[in-house]
Inverse folding.
């Protein structure tokens, strides 16, 4: 009934408009159209005049055409045009008509941000703050100009930051080179110390060799002297045995026996050679001990320095620190980011759909993607084209299948390696959540944490760079925190997925 009443009102209004236009066009009792006045720049021209331009007298919202007095007559006199709606002449009539009420769009609803006609303003937008399109344009243009200035300033600041980073490249290279010089000096010093220790050890050996040779030389001289004496004694014994007289033999033997010395042969023992085996063992043990000490000392101390340098937190902005943490899904959606997967990174087993927002593992069927340095070759992974850095970011993803994982990583992740560190579950700069045959887990640096959930189809990822947190939420039903990581993000991160099995699927959701 309400629709019928509104139609009747529209017909009556159109009839009144038609009668008024007819009277204005012909005047009382005057069937001859009036001659058009002199044209002004702001006048609307008749769309039916072919010989020359004429001022439009009315615009038809049904035909979306403007007519002069002469060409308006069929709308005034022919019954077929009685349902057409005539209004004062309009510029761009086809662009300024309400699709629902077929009335001129002359107002702008400031609350809903859309152009409305009079009927829209009194019906769907009743009670909303509205202004004329001219006034609204002034406000919007002022807002647009302000936004434009902010963007120009941000773009200029970005360019300055890029220039600063580029200028720092030379500083980084020179600084590292200076450190390399110092490191080389220290290792040269270490090598000199090792060389000095080597020389000292060899000198000890040379000293031992000289002393051992002198010992051997002394023993040899003694043995040679002893050998001469023994030969002399042997000659005397031979001479004695040839004596024919028994009395002479016995007397000479008695005299020889008194002069005979011990014939025992001394042992040729070089007692200093017994230290060589011990010396070798001492040098070997000391060398191994020093090598272990050097390696462990350098490794531990350098790792401490490296960790202290890499754990430089992102500077927290005052505006961000004053914002409360999001609690409801509506709060998180304020930080929603619309992302797409980078086709140059997708594994050849992945089918890309829905404007690069959805990936499906089609193993064993491969897709003929061109070779690219950024493409994952061994691990079936893919990364987003857009990165996330500074501030707060929220992303929602849908997972399907046992083996589907989603998380974040750095751009530096290895794309071609087969090691576990090339997978988002096995390095210290990736964090992910997913399901395997044993259930749902989160992973970071090879360590897994079991999640006490039975099934997850939709995941929410929330990143707060200033606070250094990465949170995974189950948004399949009610929003529920699964796990929160504390992470010192040192560079931008990318959303990454690992689909290990056939028919695994991940889709980045775009919540409007």
């Amino acid at each position: 009934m309400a629709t019928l009443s509104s139609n009747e009102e529209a017909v009556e209004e159109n009839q009144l408009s038609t009668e008024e236009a007819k009277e204005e066009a012909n005047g009382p009792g005057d069937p001859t159209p009036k001659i058009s006045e002199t044209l002004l720049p702001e006048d609307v021209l008749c769309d039916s005049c072919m010989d020359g331009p004429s001022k439009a007298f009315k615009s038809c919202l049904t035909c979306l055409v403007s007519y002069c007095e002469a060409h308006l007559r069929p709308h005034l006199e022919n019954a077929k045009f009685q349902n057409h709606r005539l209004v004062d002449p309009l510029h761009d009539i086809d662009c300024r008509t309400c699709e629902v009420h077929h009335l001129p769009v002359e107002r702008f609803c400031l609350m809903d941000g859309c152009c409305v006609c009079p009927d829209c303003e009194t019906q769907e937008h009743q009670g909303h703050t509205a202004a004329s399109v001219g006034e609204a344009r002034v406000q919007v243009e002022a807002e647009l100009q302000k936004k434009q200035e902010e963007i120009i300033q941000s773009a200029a600041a970005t360019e300055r930051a890029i220039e600063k980073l580029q200028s720092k490249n030379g500083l980084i290279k020179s600084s590292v080179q200076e450190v390399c010089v110092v490191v080389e000096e220290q290792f040269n010093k270490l090598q000199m110390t090792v060389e000095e220790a080597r020389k000292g050890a060899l000198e000890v050996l040379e000293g031992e060799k000289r002393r051992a040779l002198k010992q051997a030389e002394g023993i040899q001289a003694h043995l040679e002297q002893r050998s001469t004496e023994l030969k002399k004694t042997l000659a005397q014994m031979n001479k004695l045995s040839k004596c024919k007289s028994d009395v002479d033999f016995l007397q000479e033997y008695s005299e020889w026996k008194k002069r005979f010395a011990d014939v025992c042969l001394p042992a040729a023992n070089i007692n200093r050679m017994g230290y060589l085996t011990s010396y070798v063992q001492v040098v070997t043990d000391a060398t191994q001990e020093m090598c272990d000490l050097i390696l462990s000392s350098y490794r531990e101390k350098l790792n401490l320095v490296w960790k202290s340098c890499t754990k430089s937190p992102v500077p927290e902005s005052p505006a961000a620190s004053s914002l409360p943490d999001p609690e409801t899904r509506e709060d998180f959606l304020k930080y929603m980011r619309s992302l797409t997967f980078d086709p140059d990174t997708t594994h050849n087993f992945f089918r890309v759909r829905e404007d690069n927002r959805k990936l499906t593992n089609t193993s064993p069927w491969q897709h003929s993607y061109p070779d690219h340095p950024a493409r994952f070759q061994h691990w079936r992974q893919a990364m987003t084209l857009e990165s996330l850095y500074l501030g707060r970011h929220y992303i929602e993803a849908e997972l399907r299948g046992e083996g589907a994982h989603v998380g974040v990583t750095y751009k530096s992740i290895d794309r071609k390696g087969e090691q576990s560190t090339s997978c988002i579950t096995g390095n210290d700069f990736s964090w992910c959540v997913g399901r395997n045959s044993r259930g749902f887990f989160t992973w970071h640096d090879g360590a897994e944490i079991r999640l006490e959930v039975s099934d997850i189809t939709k995941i929410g990822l929330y990143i707060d760079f200033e606070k250094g947190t990465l949170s995974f939420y189950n948004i399949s039903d009610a929003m529920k925190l699964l796990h929160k990581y504390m992470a010192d993000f040192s560079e931008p991160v990318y959303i990454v997925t690992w689909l290990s099995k056939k028919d695994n699927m991940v889709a980045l959701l775009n919540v409007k």
Remarks:
- The radius of gyration is 50 Å.
- The first helix runs from residue 2 to 26.
- The domain at 2-97 is CATH 4.10.830 (30s Ribosomal Protein S14; Chain N).
- Residues 1-18, 24-36 have pLDDT under 50 and may be disordered.
